[in-house]
Amino acid sequence: MSWTPKRGGKKISINLWLHQSLDILWLANGLIFAVLLFASGRSGCGRVDAVAPGKPVYAFAYDVHSVCVNTAALTELGITSSTPNPPGGTIKRDSEGHATGYIDETAFRNIVLPFLDARASENENEASLTAVQRAYRETGVTTACDMCFNESDLMTFRRAAEAGKLTSRLIAYWRVNNTGSVEDNIAQVHRVAALAVEHTSPWLPVVGIKMILEQSTAAPPRPLPAGDRCAMCNAAVIVLSPAQAPERQPRRQNH
After folding, report:
1. Secondary element (H or E) of residue 228
2. Is the Cβ–Cβ distance between 69 and 103 less than 8 Å?
């Protein structure tokens, strides 16, 4: 089936027209949300509270390195003024020490994402993966690279692979979270090294790890405010082989 504009023009499929319409609606919704946030005159999570009071809201940054949440979300996450910043992450606070709703890096990875992953059902995860696989097929994508793979992702992809539902290849880099313990961090690397041996299928090779480092390889031109630390953070990426030791020095890349 196809659709042709009444005033003439190029004929397009109904499916493509629907996708384009949904994209436009999504962008318009995001624009309205952003305008309402800044028009509220509030700061931090108060802006989100002004738009969606009472209901938890999680607004991910496009690079998935941080999230902005409202007061309801802070409450269900259990984040208070006494919650410490984990190594390599920030729970941004106001002048009185209260969380503003901006959470980045390992604080985002170690606190927010595990909480949300635990709330998602297997059916929801599988439906999301099915939708992505369908979109890839429709746009000709044959291979993707995930730089923040985790246990929840692995279980979902394993079930899909066993059911023969994967139609595109995923190259997985496992996110190693800095726990503040050398032993725990090395244990995560050993876990990924085992997965690299186990997952040799072309549909889901686990090929390396990704870490977020606190220091930059080059000194910044000026002191960075606490909320701007992401601007100079580095990603260290290691490609694993079965014989590699986890103590190997990573190659740093600006990210």
Report:
1. none
2. yes
The token pair at 181 is 């313990």
Which tokens belong to 228?
A: 């701007």
Residue 211 buriedness (CB in 10 A; 0-12 / 13-18 / 19+): buried
SS3 65: coil
Rounded CA-CA distance 47/44 in Å is 6
Structure tokens belonging to residue 237? 């990426």
**Is 23 strand, coil or helix?**
helix
Q: Could you list the beta-strand ranges (E) of 95-183.
A: 99-104, 143-149, 169-175
Q: What angle do CA 116, 122, 125 make, to 5 degrees?
A: 65
pLDDT in tens, the chain (255 residues): 544 555 555 666 666 656 666 667 766 666 665 555 555 444 556 677 877 778 899 988 888 888 989 999 999 999 999 999 998 889 999 888 999 999 998 899 899 999 999 999 999 999 999 999 999 999 999 999 998 899 999 999 999 988 989 999 999 999 888 888 889 989 999 999 998 888 778 898 898 888 876 543 333 344 434 444 333 344 555 655 544 434 444 444 444
Are the CB atoms for 76 and 47 separated by under 8 Å? no
